[in-house]
């Protein structure tokens, strides 16, 4: 029986760090285990320009505790006014690793996102030319479309037309939640990949709604029915090179989650590696974990893999804090609902 697992240090290809007190509270939770992360730009106000991304990067690095090493991979928030030259300059200087597309109104702080996709055509064409990836929040916002169908409809109405109109555009379909998205990504070429979150491998929609509403399991895209969760498990644990970890760890303080209109987001930074080891072990796929967390992402983003490694050991149930303290209020850590046995070794 395997009791020790050594992996190249993982990266998180989709992470919310926020700003101010929340940034200070959550950054060590990620930097403890992860070497790099793609940093989401949906701050208030959003990170739209290269200058804003540089300033945010500086704030992240200033919040990093001494002795920890972590590389934030910055993104720009795509708006209908985004200047293709600004994007190209930010990419050429190495400041940004991707551009993020939020359909306007799809999720937290997405109001400055895109309403008319024709208005971002020039930016997308420039990105295709220079090979800069587009990270996509794949949900339509049409009020007529049921929230559980919004990802599948997005593929047909928005994503596929964009990809056909912009050959060579490199796309990461983020936090996929459906078998429709898994199938679409598998059928695509090397310019298409997907991230999968930790929590979507664990929960389905029953976890949110059965026996009382569970605000800490509410996120967007919302978890779907069990068949979809199983499709995600299969994609993640199969070793397919175009699926990799993007936790979408999205901290909100408890008063904003436990609320009559609670915010979307699961905070998984603290225990993601323990949860993933448990999940991959359950599926008899521990040998595929390193690909998912540490190899497939760098390959798609054309970045070197990390030289350092981490070791997980299996033993008694792991203890981790139920909540992270923050000056703005406590932040609840994702509870997978079962004990975890794999601990990241800390020395
Ligand atoms: O659950 C989510 N939370 N999904 C998103 O797309 C955004 C994120 C956030 O920023 O809170
Ligand atoms: Zn996100």
Summarize the model shown.
The chain is α/β, with parallel strands linked by helices and 347 residues long. The protein has helices spanning 20-31, 50-63, 84-92, 121-130, 150-165, 179-187, 205-209, 226-237, 254-257, 272-282, 289-301; strands spanning 4-8, 11-15, 36-39, 71-77, 96-101, 134-136, 171-173, 192-196, 243-245, 309-314, 323-324, 331-332, 342-344. The chain is globular, with a radius of gyration of 19 Å.
C-alpha geometry = globular
The bound ligands are: (4S)-2,6-dioxohexahydropyrimidine-4-carboxylic acid, zinc ion
Largest sheet: 8 strands, parallel
Number of strands: 13
The CATH topology, please?
Answer: TIM Barrel
The percentage helix is 25-40%
What are the low-pLDDT stretches, counting only 5+ consecutive residues below 50? none
Name of the top-level CATH class: Alpha Beta
The number of helical runs is 11
**Going across the major beta sheet, what is the strand order?**
2-3-4-5-6-7-8-9
The Cα radius of gyration reads: 19 Å
Tell me the domain tally.
Answer: 1
N→C terminal distance:
24 Å
List the helices and strands in order.
EEHEHEHEHEHEHEHHEHHHEEEE
Structural class: alpha/beta
Mean pLDDT: 97
CATH superfamily: Metal-dependent hydrolases
Oligomeric state of the chains in view: single chain
Instruction: Quote the beta fraction.
Output: 15-25%
| CATH architectural designation | Alpha-Beta Barrel
Q: Main attributes?
A:
single chain, 347 residues, alpha/beta, TIM Barrel, eight-stranded parallel β-sheet, three-stranded antiparallel β-sheet, 33% helix, binds (4S)-2,6-dioxohexahydropyrimidine-4-carboxylic acid, binds zinc ion
